[in-house]
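Consider the record:
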Amino acid sequence: MRDLAAICKLVLTEKKDILYSILFGFIAGIAAIGMFAASGYLISKAFLLTPLYALIIVTSFVKLLGFTRAFSRFGERYVSHRATFTILGNLRATFFEKLEPLAPSIFTKYRSGDLLARVVSDVESLQNFFLRVLYPPIVLLIVFLSTVVFTMFFSAYIAWILLAGMLLTVFVIPTIFAFRQSKIDPMVRQKRSELSTELNEFFQGFRDLKIHSKLQEKEQAVLGISESYIEEQERESINKTYNLSLNTFVTLLFSWIIVAVGAYLVTVGDLEGVFLAMLIMISLTVFEDVSPMAVFPAYLQESKQSATRLFSIFRKEERPEEHVHAKQRLQDGPLSIEMDQVSFSFQQKHETTTLSNINLQIKAGEKIAIVGPSGSGKSTLLQLILNLYQPNEGQVRINGLPLHEVDEQSLWQQTNVMLQENQFFFGTIRDNLKLAGDHLSDQSLIQALEKVNLNHFTLDDAIFEKGDNLSGGEKQRLAIARAMLKGGCLWLLDEPTSSLDAVMEHSILSSLYEQAHEATVLLVSHRLKGLEEMDQIIQMSEGTIVESGTFAELMSKKGYFYEMKQLEKEML
């Protein structure tokens, strides 16, 4: 219920539309009952040969109530849907604001398809919270109780029958089916999440599945999950249909009871016969408004499940220390970096340690090379500095500030980043380069392309999704150009030239070092060539720092780095 309370807070931001919805809904409901009550009274009066002028008055009243009902219903639909769309927009924005700081560590615990199902399907499901759960029962109760009070002026017995019917159809029957729905709904959501996840992986990996002749197997798996999802949907629909059918049966049964009791009261003289048709029409009309209560339990349970699925992510992932310390912006200029006994694991239970007891001091403006075999933790170390992941133990400091106290935006604004995997978006060369800054002119973009030998491209050349129309080397050079355009004082480069030939690598690194001569630079590489000018070389292996020092110091030690350098020479 705490998650549903959070949704209620968002809903209550639209208090004005909520009040209008209740007001228009009440007017529409009362007008409908009044119109049919007047129609029943008109039928009885016409049968008794009432003067024409009296019938004209009643007829005009019926028409007036008809217009009132139509306009009120339109107003209620318009205002309630306007509020719903605004609420959904606010909910999506709130969800994204909470989710964005958790990326990319969130993907180690939740599959992207599951997150997609939550942000799309679960948010969409919550539109029914306002339209079907929050205000309709309020309108129904006000209309029903007003009708019961009105009916008591003609017959207390009929009024009590209406009240009993209301209790049965509004509370008792929906509660019974709500219990059944609570067992069905979680399975529907689970299957929907599984289907979304499998479809996402199917489309993302379509090419590889086809190449390895596994497409048919994956199709069968997706179809199997789809069929399971359809079965759960059928169970949910059957439960809703039974609920609606039973509710309809009970409302009609009570209408028949009112007919029988009303006829008896007329015969014994406790009710004027001219009012019998009116009371029957009232019962038929007021119970029409009860039909939404048949699906109320389903929508309530659906809203609870959706709210829980959305906000459970943040309860598990939120870091308490972020609320204790105020965020501080970093000053412009080269940044210093310190790591004190830092350990990190991608596994929640620490089965596999990626980094262990890392102690590191990098002065502002230093040029650092981090080398080591694949899987030694080099890339992970950069991601900890970027605050994309948080260490399990120890502390990372930037300019002497603990990283969790640093404003992430100020850190990222001052950092030129090139990771092993760089995202390219569907669009043009210009669109992808302008990720470094919307203010950049076309001339500066062209100059950046020239520095990385991509001047054969134009700014209007198309880029496919994920850069599928670019070679590996072109992707790396485009990513380097984007980093150069950023203009930050901290460079984090993860294998920036691994797909380039030696001549191209030397040319591009020379341009890069020239631009970054006053900045702090961390270069991750598995190649040991060209590291002589680095201020410090950090040799890593199996998640630990084996040795560190200048190129000359490490060569003189004849340790791990020396052995790797000799092996590289022999291979070349």
Remarks:
- The domain at 337-571 is CATH 3.40.50.300 (Rossmann fold).
- The first strand starts at residue 337 and ends at 344.
- The longest helix spans residues 215-267.
- Residues 319-324 have pLDDT under 50 and may be disordered.
